[in-house]
Amino acid sequence: MKEIIVKSRYRDVVIKLCPISDSVYEVHTNSMYTRIGYRNDNSIEFIDFEGGPFISIGSNIEGNIVKNITKGDNYLIEFENGSISGKND
Fold first, then answer.
1. Which residues of the chain have pLDDT under 50?
2. CA 43/CA 63 separation, integer angstroms
3. pTM of this structure
4. Nearest-10 Cα torsion for 34, 65, 85, 9
5. Which residue of 28, 29, 64, 89 sits 20 to 30 Å from the alpha carbon of 55, by its own alpha carbon?
6. Using CA atoms, how far apart are residues 45 and 69, in angstroms rounded to an integer?
7. Are 66 and 58 spatial neighbours (Cβ–Cβ below 8 Å)?
């Protein structure tokens, strides 16, 4: 399991996905603005960071499909395929 760096259009905005289990990654960012889209049941449909990227359920991040997005202290992204096949290996 490796950290994944997600590119933003703004060079000074950093978005890191840090592993906390085989399929769940915690989002760390210095983005000043984050837009959140909620479903009718108050679950999160998408997160959109300052300068991008727009990440939603079904998004493909380095060959891995986003299954779920939740919010605790930070955003958590769960992937469908269990183990990340990141290009950062």
1. 88-89
2. 24
3. 0.81
4. -30
5. 89
6. 7
7. yes
